[in-house]
Amino acid sequence: MAEVLLTGSLFIYLSSQYEISVTYSFLLVPILTVAYACQTKPLIWLGPFLVVVTWASSLFINKNFFAIFIDTIIFYGIGFCLGRMTIVNKANKELIASIEEKNKDLEYYSKQIEELTIKEERNRVSQDLHDTVGHIFTSVITSLDALPFLYQADKIEAEKSIKEISDLARNGLNDVRKTIHHMSPENHQTLVESVEELIADFMKHTSTDIRLIVEGEASKISERVKLAIIRCIQEGLTNAKRHGQATSIKVNISFKQEELIVLIEDNGNGCNELNLGFGLRSMKDRISALAGSVNFDSKLNNGMKITCNIPMAKEV
C-alpha cells in the first residue's frame, strides 16, 4: 500500500506535468515490487487488481495500450516469480533447519535406545544365568546330599546317580554357555513338551512330587513367550525347593482364547511378608515385558502360589 500511495501520487503529479507515454514507464518498477511482495492471500489479489486498473486507465489516456499491457504483464510476472523464488528458498532453508534438528533428535534417541537395548540385554543374560545356574545347582546339591545315604544302601544305584549328576552338570554348563553367547535353545518342542521335560528332570534329581495340569487346547506361541514361561516355571520350582523346602508342587498351564495363565503352587514353608529376590523380580520383569502380570500369594506354613497372566492378543 505504501508503494502504491507514494509511487501513485508521484505518477499523478508527473502525468499532470508531462506526457503519459513518458511517465507511465515509471510505474513498471513499483508494479514489480508489488508483485514481489504480494505472495499470500489476500494480498495475492492486490497485484493483478492494480495491473488491471493501471492498464484500464491507460486506455483513456494512451493509444498504445497494447504495448503498455505487455510491459505491465512482463514486469508483474518477473516480480511474482522473484517473490515465489524467495518464498521457496525460505521454505527450503526452514525445511533444512528442521531436518537438521530432527537428525539431532534422532541421534539422541538412537543413543538412548542403544543404551536401553544394552541394559535390557544385560538384564536378560543375568536373568537367564540366574535361572539356569540356580535350577541346575539346586538339583545337583539335592542329589549330592542324598548320595551318601544312597551309597550305603545300594552302591550300584549310587554309581548310576553319580553318572546322572555328572550329565546334569554338563547340561547345565551347556545352558550357561548358550546364555553367554546369546543363543536360544535349539529345539522344536512345544511349550508343554518342554515343561514336561523340565519337570521330569527336576523330579528325578530332587525327589519332589510335581503334578502338571494342562487346560484348554495348546495354541501356538512365539519362542519369546515360550522361553519366558519356561524360565518362570524353572524359577518357581527352584524357589519352592530351595527356600520353601516344598515336597509337592502343582503346575497348571491354562490356554484361553485371550490369555495364557500359568499357576505354580507348592506346599512349602511360605511367609507372611514376601520380599522379592532377584529370581522373582526377574520373573516379574519377563512377564511384564510381554504385557502380562504376575501375582505372588504366600502365607506362613501354607506354601506359595505364583500366577502369571500373559495376554495372547498382545504377543509380539
Number of helices: 9
- Quick one: biggest sheet? 5 strands, mixed
Estimate percent helicity: 55-70%
Beta fraction: 5-15%
Termini separation comes to 63 Å
Low-pLDDT sequence parts: 182-186
Assembly category: single chain
Mean model confidence by pLDDT: 78
Q: For the largest beta sheet, what order do the strands appear in spatially?
A: 1-2-3-5-4
From the spread of the alpha carbons, the general shape counts as: rod-shaped
Taken in chain order, the helices and strands follow as HHHHHHHEHEEHEE
Q: Class by helix and strand content? A: alpha+beta
Task: Briefly characterize the structure.
With 316 residues, the protein is an alpha+beta fold.
Lay out the secondary structure.
Elements: H1 2-17, H2 20-23, H3 28-37, H4 46-59, H5 65-153, H6 155-180, H7 191-206, E1 209-215, H8 223-242, E2 248-255, E3 259-266, H9 278-289, E4 293-298, E5 304-311
Parallel strand pairs: 1-2
Antiparallel strand pairs: 2-3, 3-5, 4-5
Helix pairs in contact: 3-5, 4-5, 5-6, 5-8, 5-9, 7-8, 8-9
Keywords:
66% helix; 5 strands; 9 helices; alpha+beta; 316 residues; single chain; five-stranded mixed beta sheet
Give a description of the structure:
The protein is of the alpha+beta class and 316 residues long. The protein has 9 helices and 5 strands. It has a 5-stranded mixed β-sheet, with helices on one face.
